[in-house]
Amino acid sequence: MTTDLTFSAGQRPDGTPVLAVTGEIDMSNAGQFGSALAGALPERGRLAVDLTGVGYLDTSGLAQLFRHAQRIEVTVGDMLATVVTISGLADLTTVTRATA
Amino acid sequence: MLPVGEARARVSGMRAGGSAATVLELLFPGDSEMARRMRAHDWDGSALGDPAGWPASLRTACRICLTSRFPMIVWWGPELSFLYNDAYLPLLGSKHPALGKPGEQVWAEIWPIIGPMLDSVLSTGQATWSEDLLLPMNRHGYWEETYWTYSYSPLHDDAGTVRGVFTAVSETTERVIGERRLTVLHDLGARAGHARSVAEACELVAAALGRAGADVPLAAVYLRDDATGELVLAASSPLGAQPAPRTGGPGGWPLDEAIALGQPVRVTDVRARFGDLPAGGWSASPAQAVVLPLAFETGGPAGVLVAAASAGRALDEAYESFLTLVGQQTAALVTGAVAYQAQQRRAEELAELDRAKTVFFSNVSHEFRTPLSLITGPLEELRAALPDPGAAVARELDVIDRNAQRLSKLVNTLLDFSRLEAGRMQPRFEAADLAALTAELASSFRSAMDRAGLAFEVDCPPLPEPVYVDPELWEKVVLNLLSNALKFTFQGSVRVGVRVSGDQAVTEVADTGTGIPAAELPRLFERFHRVATARARSHEGSGIGLALAAELVALHGGEITAASTEGAGTVFTVTLPLGRSPGRVAAGPAPARGLGATRAYVQEAERWLPGGESAWPVDAGEPAGPAGPAGPAARDGARVLLADDNADMREYLQRLLDPEYQVQAVADGQAALDQARARPPDLVISDVMMPGRDGLSLVVALRADPVTAGVPVMLLSARAGQESVIEGLDAGADEYLVKPFAAAELRARVRGILRLAQVRGAHARWRTAMIDSMQEAFFVADQSGAIVEVNSAFTRLLGYGPGDLPYTPAQPWPPHLSTEPARPARHRDGRLVWIAASISQATDPQTGQRMTVGTLRDVTAEHYVGQRQTAVAAMGVLLSEAETVPEAVTGTIWEIREIWHARQVLAVTWDDTGEPALAAAGPARAWDDLPEAARDAISALRAGPRLRPATSGPGAVGIALEHPGGLLALWAELDPDRPFASEDEALLTQLCGYLVQALHRIHQSGQQREAALALQRAILGPAELPPGFAARYEPATRPLEVGGDWYDIIDLPDGRTGLVVGDCVGHGLAAATVMGQVRSAGRALLLRETSPARALAALDQFAAQIPGAACSTVFCGILDPATGRLVYSSAGHPPAIVAAADGGITLLEDGRSASLAVAEDLARSDAECVLPGRSTLLLYTDGLVERRRQPLDEGIMRAAAAVQAGRSALAADLAGQLMAGLAPAGGYEDDAALLLYRHPVPLELTFPADAAQLAPARRALRHWLTQCGLATRTIQDVLVAAGEACANAVEHGARHGASAPVRLAATATATDLRLTVTDGGQWREPAPGATAYRGHGIPFMRAVMTRVAIAPGQNGTVVNMELRISS
């Protein structure tokens, strides 16, 4: 059994594909998260990963983000602020804080 | 009571419009006597003046005084005018009425005490008090001992000046008396186990009660006298008190009645019975008493304790139960003493019996010896004087001789026994050819067997190895068995056989005799036991022959058994170890061994046979010496020693003299000298010319030796001529005969010399005979100090015989020729003996030399007896002081080691599995270090009898005894130089008896102590608290562990927890028993009722039923740990304290109402609060906060501050800090209890190492962190750190098999969070250069937590994380 995680795909007005994730990401579902990321990446350009619906993200989930760091931009809520900062993800890719 | 301000307002209100009467009614309200008196008082004439003009404070004080039921006084004005209430009347007694009088006048007699106190209050404005003041008071129809505490507070006038003093009085009688009685019981209890006798126990009780006169003015212990059956006064207090019943009165104490009833009898007409009795310091003589039957456990005497009750206290239920407790303590003390005495008596009786027996044997034997030698001595004289007595006389002489011999044999056997008993039988083991020795002994019986018509078969083929035996003792064994066989065998055969079986030499004596009934076999080797029904050749016999044989065989390390079929015969089998000595092998030459014993046995046996004549010459002296067999002796009995180097000449002379004399022939002068010294003959005949020492030199040597100086010597020489003759006679010869000589001349000269010598030597011989028959060792030393003569007792004592005389002063044994009470000396065989010497000087009439003559007495036994008495005393002290079982056992083994100079002493016990445990006085450390033989010997003790020493081979002794843990075996490896005699066995038994007694006492008192503690803990409260709670308890009365205070935690349905802290009135045991009941009731009611208030209301009803339970205060709460919601209600209890994480303090003061059961239908209400996250809740009793001369509020605030200051500590640590930190300088004066709770309860999660479990674990942690009241951001940080640690743990656990679960624990204080994650796997260090996100999240943990510690271990990894919470 894995921790509940849902994905929904969309598009920004500028055409950038968006993957919105809801739930918690830990080692039980990091693989699932990674597959979803890989699957959502466009052939060209960046993928916007919207993590504002994610309440918990651990290093296994971060590892998936790092793998595609060059090709994604990430939006996080307050809950993940510390993780994203400490991990250094913000230094490699664009991280936007969505304030509630 | 009205608040002061309100009262003042009302009075002022009245002054305006009310009438004078109404004003007085308001000033002095109520219809009490004093209110009426005050209203009626002529105030205008007094120093106080019109009440209407009184300051407000005086008026208020007066109102308080009149409406209070406590005794109160108001002193006012410069004269300290005296106002008081009804409650004070009994204290005032006949001084009433004293309204308005000056204080000094009212209390003139105690003014020196209270005057200065009142002055001090007036001058300083500070309150003061006087505590526990004894006031005899007549309030219940008798003068009663009462105690009061007075407090003196200042009263100010309207201007604020101190003008008066307000005195409140509270009664402390119950506490003072209760404490005093408890002290008495402690005092008695402390004496348990001290008394050695019943009398001593009674005296201890009397002594203890002598200090308790105030509670037991007269006590008397009566015990049933075993002889008369009457109850006799054993002890009394005051010392020697023995009140006699009044003539014409109702009689004495109803002692027998109390015993018959088996319960206390109350005597209410004490004064009518006895008149005045000791009053224990009270003004009146006791009027009541209790007669208590004493119940002893151990069948001691029936007894009674009479305890008079002080006239100063009513003999109520409490008083009577106190006296009953005194009775029980008394009975326990007496019981202990009876048990002690019985044990001691048994041990002493055993020892005494053994000692008496040994002394008896020893004395009887010695007493017989002297008269015996006075029969046999003169008998020999008589034979010498009557060379041809005629047949009739000769027969009579033979009868005398035979019987003297028989008696002598019996006496010798008895002496052997006494020597065995005293440990003085020292076998001289030597490697012997057992077959040859036995065959030789058997051959002496051959003629007797022949004459009895029995076939006698001796089958003794040589053995492959020597057997270590003492030939003399072995002789006794074999002869006893042979004589026994002959005695009981009428036809058939007797067979003696020696053979080897394994490593044993087996000697069998088998007969075809009458046999022994099977029932008698087990007692066959018992001393003095005779087989009554056996048909025998003779009924002579003492029944000790076989017993002696058995003891002697045992001494050889062997065993004797008998098998018998009645009517068919008996086989005695003796087994001895082959080729190894059971003891020290004799050094030096064996002493001369004679056939004396053999002769006595065979002679006796032959007399049983038809004809009755012995084939042995009954009048023969004992032939001596190893030089060869002696010829048959002449009837004359004179012993002639013959020295000639020519064998033909020796034979010729022997033939010449043989018919008349007992001749011993040797081949040279030196041999002759040795023989003569060893046993002086009656005459020496010597050739002059011999190789080595010649005849002349022999004569000189003989004359130089005091022992042989008187022996006549005849020289034979081939050298004729006057010169030779003169030379010979000059040298000291008595006769000089020149060869060749006529046979008749030789015989005539010999006869002449002997007759002359007989006359001349009678005195000397008597001297020798007497000296030899002396029981004391005797010696003569010459001027140089050399010992030149000794007697046989000397040889027995020190091992040095006459054969090696003289002994020069350089000898290592007794060198000091001085009279001394006791000094050690070394026996020739090396052992130590203790001797007392008596020395005197004498001049030898022949030589004029100053000689030293001494007697030595063997005081070894006495010496050791003295040592043993010291040992017994030392043991007594040691054991009475020992407080634990190991202490007593260890002390005992060291003492035993000391007493017997043992190499080591071991104490071994076995646990349930049979595993031995060892305590050692000596080098041994562990059971497995011991040699196998020792382990076997010790193990064998387990199966044997208790308290009976068992010697396992020479040099070791063991004993088994009862031990609280089962069985205790003591085993001592002894000093090989010290024999372990039966006296030693008795002493060891006695000491071990003491040890058993001491172990029993120690064990029992230990059990009682444990039982008392267990009982106390049972009523105290839960020992194990749920997580998050901590409690402390400190009773005021040590060594009690309980008191009137308690705390309780109760698991309720729906996960709620009941919390109770309460305080019953008083402290000590009485309060504890009330507390136990109230606590249990509270527990039950909380489970039943829905709210604290309802539980308290139900508890009100319960408390009303229990004496002493009313007025208890209780704080009762129901906590929901999930939400922190606390519903509570307080029955007169101080408020609980809540310290929030930010340091804020809240007192839970709502929901308060009166103490338990103080009024009917009390309304009780609940209050509610919610404990914030990381707050601390403190419930406590007033003992924790109460201080003398300080308001309770101050104490409560001090406690609150302490909780606030300690809010960062863990609950368990904080509880200890509070208890220690709040204690007054002299320790808590009242019971104190506290109960702490830190919200929320620490988190404790365990989940399988499965990634799917991470989300639920995070959920639980998030919930708990929320309960902790943390900011969302902080919660998220902690979740990340904990989540990483848990993910790692799951990874490890999964890697090492799913068996090991993951544990997550979290604790919060006001300022810190502590998290611990534990797994069952191994931590993997992050690879060098790994990026942050591959580092297993450690940087995350470090980034968000204040401190992270990872402790990898063999069985798992522990991650500890701490976070300091910023406020």
What is the residue-averaged pLDDT of chain B? 81
Largest protein interface, residues of each chain? A-B, 22 and 27 residues
Helix content of chain B: 25-40%
Low-confidence stretches of chain A: none
Gist of the model:
Chain A is of the alpha/beta class. Helix content of chain A is 31%, strand content 36%. Chain A is built from four helices and five strands, in the order ββαβαβααβ.
3D architecture notes:
The complex is a heterodimer of chains A (100) and B (1367). Chain A has 100 residues and is an alpha/beta fold. Chain A contains four helices and five strands; from the N terminus they run ββαβαβααβ. In chain A, α1 (30-40) packs parallel to α2 (59-67). In chain A, 37% of the residues are buried. The mean pLDDT of chain A is 88. With 1367 residues, chain B is α+β, with helices and mostly antiparallel strands. Chain B has 36 helices and 48 strands. In chain B, β14 and β15 form a beta hairpin.
Descriptors:
heterodimer; A: 100 residues; alpha/beta; five-stranded mixed sheet; B: 1367 residues; alpha+beta; six-stranded mixed sheet; 36 helices; 48 strands; elongated; disordered N terminus
Structural topology:
The complex is a heterodimer of chains A (about 100) and B (about 1350).
Chain A lengths: L4 E7 L5 E9 L4 H11 L6 E11 L1 H9 L4 E5 L4 H7 L1 H4 L1 E4 L3
Parallel strand pairs in A: 2-3, 3-4, 4-5
Antiparallel strand pairs in A: 1-2
Helix pairs in contact in A: 1-2
Chain B lengths: L3 H14 L2 H8 L5 H8 L15 H12 L4 E5 L4 E4 L4 H4 L10 H4 L4 H14 L3 E11 L4 E14 L5 E10 L1 H17 L8 H13 L8 E6 L6 E7 L17 H7 L3 E3 L2 H5 L13 E7 L8 E7 L7 H69 L5 H31 L8 E3 L1 H10 L2 H6 L3 E5 L7 E3 L1 H18 L4 E9 L2 E8 L33 H11 L3 E7 L3 E9 L18 H12 L31 E5 L3 H11 L4 E5 L2 H10 L4 E5 L7 H10 L8 E5 L4 H10 L3 E4 L4 H31 L3 E5 L5 E4 L1 H7 L21 E7 L5 E12 L6 E9 L1 H22 L3 H16 L3 E7 L5 E6 L10 H12 L6 E2 L4 E8 L2 E8 L8 H39 L8 E6 L10 E7 L5 E7 L4 H21 L3 H14 L7 E8 L4 E7 L4 E4 L5 E4 L3 E2 L13 E4 L5 E5 L1 H4 L6 H14 L5 H11 L10 E7 L4 E5 L6 H14 L4 H24 L6 E7 ...
Parallel strand pairs in B: 12-14, 18-19, 18-20, 20-21, 21-22, 37-40
Antiparallel strand pairs in B: 1-2, 1-5, 3-4, 4-5, 6-7, 6-10, 8-9, 9-10, 11-13, 14-15, 15-17, 16-17, 23-24, 23-27, 25-26, 26-27, 28-29, 28-32, 30-31, 31-32, 33-43, 34-35, 35-36, 36-37, 37-41, 38-39, 38-42, 42-43, 44-45, 45-46, 46-48, 47-48
